[in-house]
Amino acid sequence: MPLLPTWPHHIAPISRLPHSRGPRVISLLGKGGSSKTTTAIQLAGTGAAIGRRVLILDTDPQRSASGWRALREDTRISVKTCRPQDVADLVSRASQAGIELVLVDNPPVRSAASDAIAAAADLSVVMVRPSMLDLVVGMDWITWLNAANHQFAVVIGAAPPMRAGTEAPFVREARMALRQEVHRLWRGQLTLRHAVIESVGVGATLMETEPDGAAAGEFCRLWIGLMAELERTR
Ligand SMILES: Nc1ncnc2c1ncn2[C@@H]1O[C@H](COP(=O)(O)OP(=O)(O)O)[C@@H](O)[C@H]1O
Ligand SMILES: [Mg+2]
Question: Where is the CobQ/CobB/MinD/ParA nucleotide binding domain (predicted)?
Answer without folding.
Answer: 30-74
